[in-house]
Write a structure and sequence with these properties.
The complex is a heterodimer of chains A (about 90) and B (about 750). Chain A has about 90 residues and is mostly helical. Chain A contains three helices and no strands. Helix content of chain A is about 75%, strand content about 0%. Classes of the chains: A mainly alpha (about 90), B alpha+beta (about 750).
């Protein structure tokens, strides 16, 4: 009985693990997909940075002048990232 | 069932091996189906480890002493609650627990990222499966939890009495969860280094798991401290023991990482530093497991030395050398994208804080391993204790607390002097007022400068966090006009990382106030008292009212009821007990086995409140009973063989009855001898401690845990939360930003 259980478990593991191999072969995502994912992560981080600068300003940790300059810089960086994302989306190669 | 368990371990090992190969083959040849098969290997491994672990727990539950591990670490008299925990008190069970937790956390991580980081994840999968294969092979070939005996004993050896404590049910799984969770950022860092994908993605994928590792490890460390305080009978909560340090080092390392990844996310800086911290924390987590399991360093926590040292040393060497090699290989890609704009910025504070934390790790590592280093160099193992840590750790801790107050009130990138003045005025004033009040307070803590500074810094931190919360609420209310509680919840909900972190800083300040006060102003008295006698500690009179006893098949307890008064007024009554558990050593004799002082634990008599703890423990010894015990041993040594010889010739039922009569006589004798502790009490040793603010340590830890949970809670994605343009993106504009950039995210309430 115990041997039967072990055999069933072994067969189940084999079937489960190798299931993708029985499907049609598919290629890994291209380099462009990976680049896009990196850019999207960078965009998220930049948005978070913008939000943090905003909160720092509202809570009095950044002067108006510093905030304007930092905000302008961050938005410029965010736009550059978004342009890169656009470029990667339109022309993945 | 043992056969199934052994077979499951072998299948798990094969699955891990296949998964490693499939993941690497798939990613190197661009074959997604093989990568998927590799990921599924982790899921299958989790299922196999779960079944194996359940089989082991079931064996403990059923008192199946044919399992050697059950016979050696449990008994029929072990309380049911602890039978389940007994699995991880053994080396074999704890290795299986490692595989079980590692496979569960790895499965969760790989499921969450199954459609992301397609290049990095297969390598991370291979690394995680490599760890699983290592621990599975140890469990399968070196310390098999499913090894059995053909002649199982009728009774097990029982659980180490020191582990009969509620925290032991969750302390090891928490620590091991922390250790195994640390391997996930480690694995993804390796994947990022191998593929050269060292940007923001791997950081964002692993941040939450790093935070979870930090939280679990922190809970584990706290529970260990609580166990030490209430179980070990020495009156402290932290002994700078190697196993405690082994958990603290990766925790400090990952604390540094959680802060410094923010700098990488925001500024693209500190890439080498961050991968080094993650790889270091992962390696230290294996080192921690090694220290617990190998018994290489003397520790009150190392439950069972073993022969697993060499495999662990090889693994740690591979991790260290591999990490260094990968970082050197990718040193060009790891260059920072930006520079520090100003030393007056949050980045600079984080950087300094990172240096302090890593400095602490170096100090702890060096002092912890000094006995081994000294042995290697001089042939003599030099023992070092807590005094060797304090000269370094105390100043570093003070700097750390100061930085945890500065961090929340300083902005990213840069600040002006006017802003600094505005933000620092109140917290600095609070710190100075605290300092001067304590300095000139009659009976104040002038004699302990470090404690005094810690209290002042804690006031600074708590005020800075409160000020930040208040200003945040005010800013939110200015936009939403919500009532204060609603605005507070809204503020924290929308900025969980920030305010979760601030809560942790506040908790740290509270915790370290407790540590500073309780360690600097503790009063203790080691006394020998007879019933009716009193001793004085810090103005409290503690009277030994009467002895008490507990006699059962599981243990014999010698205790004392203590009455505490101050200025003639009753304060509290506490009871402390020393329990002796039956030994399995036949040389102790049939009576003496119940009075084995090497198999004992302590129940602390504790009265605690926010202001102070009165901590008492009895160190009762059965020495005055030695002549009676010896006499009983001699009587039963002569009597028992006769009964057994006669019983062997009787039918089974009568033989059993004869043996039962023998054990009844024995129990009566043991009970009578033990009862002398109450009828003829002898002078007994007590350790009496009065320490202030110990409860603040546990309260601070709870606040830290709450902050960790807030920070860990998922934050809505900015990309999803913000409205997107309905039409496809425009063709890219020139890369330089326009003079007046378009408004990006719509301004929302903070």
């Amino acid at each position: 009985m115990q041997y039967l259980f072990v055999f069933v478990v072994l067969a189940g593991v084999l079937l489960f693990v190798t299931a993708p191999l029985r499907r049609a072969s598919s290629a890994e995502p291209s380099l462009a997909d990976a680049n896009l994912a990196e850019l999207e992560a960078a965009r998220e981080a930049k948005y978070r940075e913008l939000s943090d600068a905003d909160l720092d300003h509202r809570t009095g940790k950044l002067s108006d002048d510093d905030y304007e300059e930092i905000d302008r810089t961050l938005r410029g960086e965010a736009i550059t990232i978004m342009h890169d994302i656009d470029r990667a989306t339109i022309d993945p190669q | 069932m043992a056969l199934i368990g052994r077979a499951l371990l072998l299948i798990a090992l094969g699955t891990a091996g296949f998964g490693i190969w499939a993941s690497i083959y798939g990613v190197r040849n661009g074959r997604r189906e093989w990568v998927d098969a590799g990921r599924r290997s982790v899921y299958a491994l989790a299922a196999l480890a779960t079944i194996a672990f359940v089989i082991l727990e079931d064996a403990f539950w059923r008192n199946d002493f044919s399992f050697n591990v059950v016979a050696n670490h449990s008994s029929t008299t072990t309380p049911a609650f602890y039978k389940l925990a007994a699995a991880w008190s053994s080396q074999e069970g704890s290795l299986l627990l490692w595989v079980f937790l590692l496979s569960l956390w790895s499965s969760l991580m790989l499921f969450l990222v199954r459609k992301r980081a397609r290049e990095v994840t297969p390598y991370a999968t291979a690394v995680l499966l490599g760890f699983a294969a290592f621990f599975t092979s140890l469990a399968a070939f070196w310390a098999n939890p499913f090894s059995t005996s053909s002649t199982p004993p009728s009774e097990g050896a029982g659980l180490d009495p020191l582990l009969l404590h509620p925290t032991m049910m969750i302390h090891p799984p928490m620590l091991y969860s922390g250790y195994t969770l640390l391997t996930i950022p480690f694995a993804f860092a390796v994947g990022a280094l191998v593929t050269g994908r060292l940007g923001a993605e791997w950081i964002s994928l692993t941040r939450r798991f790093a935070l979870a590792a930090w939280l679990f490890l922190g809970i584990g460390i706290l529970l260990g401290a609580l166990w030490s305080y209430t179980e070990l009978g020495w009156g402290g909560y932290w002994a700078w023991d190697p196993v405690e340090n082994a958990a603290l080092m990766p925790w400090l390392c990952i604390t540094a990482f959680i802060h410094s990844i923010m700098i990488q996310e925001k500024r693209g800086m500190l890439k080498v530093w961050n991968v080094s911290l993650v790889l270091g924390a992962g390696t230290l987590s294996i080192l921690g497991t090694f220290l617990v399991r190998s018994g290489i360093l003397d520790s009150i926590h190392a439950f069972g030395a073993s022969t697993l040292g060499i495999p662990f040393v090889i693994l740690i060497a591979v991790m260290v050398m591999g990490s260094i090699g990968l970082i050197l290989w990718r040193r060009e890609e790891l260059r920072s994208d930006a520079r520090l704009e100003s030393l007056l910025s949050r980045e600079a504070v984080f950087l300094f804080q990172n240096l302090v934390l890593v400095g602490m790790v170096f100090v702890i590592f060096w002092v912890t391993f000094f006995p081994l280093i000294s042995q290697a160099l001089t042939g003599t193992k030099v023992s070092v204790g807590p005094p060797a840590f304090r000269p370094f750790i105390v100043p570093l801790a003070l700097i750390l607390v100061a930085l945890s107050g500065i961090g929340p009130i300083i902005a990213w990138r840069r600040v002006t002097v006017a802003n600094l003045r505005r933000n620092f005025a109140l917290p600095v004033a609070a710190g100075l007022v605290t300092l001067f009040v304590l300095l000139f307070l009659p009976g104040g803590p002038r004699s302990r400068p470090f404690a005094l500074i810690m209290f002042a810094l804690a006031a600074f931190v708590l005020t800075s966090v409160a000020q930040e919360l208040w200003r945040g609420v005010a800013a939110r209310r200015a936009m939403t006009h919500d009532p204060v509680p609603v605005a507070l919840v809204g503020l924290v909900r929308r900025n969980r990382r920030r305010y979760g972190g601030y809560t942790v800083h506040a908790g740290l300040a509270v915790l370290l106030v407790g540590v500073a006060a309780s360690s600097s102003f503790q009063h203790s008295n080691d006394v020998i008292l007879k019933p009716g006698q009193s001793a004085s500690v810090d103005g409290y009179a503690i009277r030994y009212v009467r002895p008490v006893e507990t006699i059962s098949s599981q243990k014999i307890g010698f205790g004392a009821v203590l009455d505490v008064t101050k200025g003639g007024k009753h304060v509290t009554t506490v009871t402390t007990v020393r329990n002796f558990y039956p030994s399995q050593n036949p040389n102790d004799g049939l009576i003496g086995k119940f009075f084995d002082t090497s198999n004992a634990d302590s129940e602390v008599g504790l009265d605690q409140n926010l202001r102070r703890n009165i901590w008492t423990v009895i160190n009762a010894q059965p020495t005055p009973l030695a002549s009676l015990i010896n006499k009983g041993n001699n009587v039963f040594a002569a009597y028992a063989p006769q009964v057994m010889t006669k019983a062997a010739k009787l039918p089974p039922a009568q033989a059993q009855a004869a043996m039962n009569t023998l054990w009844e006589y024995r129990d009566a004798a043991v009970s009578e001898i033990a009862h002398r502790f109450v009828t003829n009490p002898w002078p007994t040793e007590f350790l009496l401690i009065v320490a202030p603010l110990v409860s603040w340590i546990w309260i601070g830890a709870l606040i830290i845990g709450l902050g960790g949970l807030i920070a860990l809670w998922p934050v809505p994605s900015f990309a999803r939360r913000r409205a997107q343009a309905p039409s496809p993106a425009r063709p890219p504009a020139p890369p330089s930003p326009p003079a007046t950039p378009p408004r990006l995210p719509v301004r929302e309430p903070v």
